[in-house]
Amino acid sequence: MKRDGTRIAVLTAYDHLLASLLDTAGLDVLLVGDSLANVVQGEDTTVPVTMDQMVYHCRIVASAARRAFVVGDMPFLSYQTNAEDALRNAGRLMKEGRVEAVKLEGGREVAQQVRRIAEAGVPVMGHLGLTPQSIHQFGTYRVRGRQTEDRQRLLEDAHILQDSGAFGVVLEKIPSDLAAEVTAALEIPTIGIGAGPHCDGQVLVTHDMLGMFERFRPRFVRRYRELAAEIRGAGAEYVQDVRAGRFPALEESYRGAAPKDS
């Protein structure tokens, strides 16, 4: 798709029903993101997500996908320790979670892990720029790559990931001109989130895109629907109908057995 100039459409999915709907909508990639910590579990960061939880969500998403490529996030401390731990956990996501690729955060510091996983036959996607698993180290969710040295390091890290065997890389919350430079420099596709229009593809958290997650709204999110208001409204109408005895109506009820002929 990168060679053909066809942009890659990616959204997150965490459950079977939503994954099935997105799959039939034509998504190229479904990302089972550790962002489920925020939008499913109600956590403030992605750090608490466990391997067992990721395996569970990956499996139910993969069971729904008929055409989309399914990528599973490797959670915090499932790969940072060493290459063998990284391979073992990537194998779990593929064997038990049934994903077709894994994604991990970082550049040169995880190059050994990327190489080990890729050499074992597991496709690996990288993730540079804002890396949410490192939020306690950085302290803020600010844009990354604005300083000259940071720009150079990110560009170098992108090449390192490519050379280590990554098949693609997510670029999160970096200046659009830097994302364009990285995209032009790499043979592998870039997937942007808050990285401007020049990446080879784009990803959003589905709950953000549908207007379901309201705790904060990043600048880069375009809301295609406002489902939070719709869901609250439907719930309120249901409560009113139950309280007033309007639900269920007779046509929504079952009849008893027909009387026998006398």
- What is the third-level CATH name, the topology? TIM Barrel
| Count of DSSP-assigned helices | 10
Percent range for β-strand residues: 5-15%
Major beta sheet, specifics? 8 strands, parallel, barrel
Distance N to C terminus: 74 Å
**Run of helices and strands:** EHEHHEHEHEHHEHEEHH
Shape: elongated
Round the mean pLDDT to the nearest integer and report it. Answer: 96
Uncertain segments of ≥5 residues (pLDDT<50)?
Answer: none
CATH architecture: Alpha-Beta Barrel
Q: Mind telling me the CATH class? A: Alpha Beta
**Main sheet: strand order:** 1-2-3-4-5-6-7-8
Describe the structure.
The protein is α/β, with parallel strands linked by helices. The protein has one domain: Phosphoenolpyruvate-binding domains (TIM Barrel), CATH 3.20.20. Helices cover 38% and strands 14% of the residues. The protein has 10 helices and 8 strands. It has an 8-stranded parallel beta barrel, surrounded by 6 helices. The longest helix is centred in the middle third of the chain and has 17 residues, at 148-164. The N and C termini lie far apart (74 Å). The mean pLDDT is 96.
What's this entry about, in short?
With 262 residues, the chain is an alpha/beta fold. The chain is built from ten helices and eight strands.
Brief descriptors of the model:
single chain; about 260 residues; alpha/beta; TIM Barrel; 8-stranded parallel barrel; 10 helices; about 40% helix; about 15% strand; elongated
